[in-house]
Design a protein that fits this description.
- The chain is mostly helical.
- The protein has a single domain, classed as Up-down Bundle (Four Helix Bundle (Hemerythrin (Met), subunit A)).
- Helix content is 60%, strand content 6%.
- The chain has a 3-stranded mixed sheet.
- Helix 3 runs parallel beside helix 5 and helix 3 packs antiparallel against helix 6.
- The longest helix has 24 residues.
- The chain starts with a helix and ends in a 12-residue tail after the last helix.
- The model has no long low-confidence stretch (mean pLDDT 97).
């Protein structure tokens, strides 16, 4: 399956499930010290923003090297807990639609571009894109309290 189609299928499949959460349910952490669904989906927006830069960098340069990010700080500073659930869901969906367009435009040869994030080992751009989708599915499974949660990291 094309990587853009992998992402498209995931967001289309999960949008109704996310919209099915009430504002009240989206505001309750799934456990002590855990994020609320609002924060967890907000984290996925932050992940989209960070990966957006990585995908463009890997698609337009001979290699990409960039920082990781402090996910808890990002979630806290955005104050997702205070935002309406439907707004978070809509932004997550639209941002990923933009990423689908970007991924679809990346020539196949560019998917082999070496990418280094933070202190991690280099991986290909294709791996980074696939990893993004798996990471997203993992968090959606968690916030929807599914019995079966996609394994992440996949190492």
């Amino acid at each position: 399956m094309e990587l853009s189609e992998l992402l498209r299928a995931a967001i289309v499949r999960e949008l109704p499930n996310l919209r099915g959460l009430t504002e009240e349910r989206a505001s309750v952490p799934r456990g002590g010290g855990k994020w609320t669904p609002k924060e967890e989906l907000g984290h996925l927006i932050d992940s989209a923003a960070n990966n957006h830069l990585r995908f463009v960098g890997g698609a337009t340069a001979a290699e990409f090297r960039g920082p990781g990010y402090a996910q808890d700080d990002w979630v806290r500073i955005h104050r997702y807990r205070e935002m309406p659930w439907e707004e978070i869901v809509a932004f997550w969906f639209q941002y990923n639609r933009l990423l689908i367009q970007l991924i679809a435009a990346i020539p196949a040869a560019r998917l082999e571009t070496p990418c280094t994030v933070g202190a991690g080992a280099p991986v290909t751009l294709g791996y980074l894109i696939e990893d993004y989708v798996i990471h997203m599915q993992h968090h959606i499974d968690l916030l929807l309290l599914r019995e079966t949660v996609t394994r992440y990291p996949r190492h």
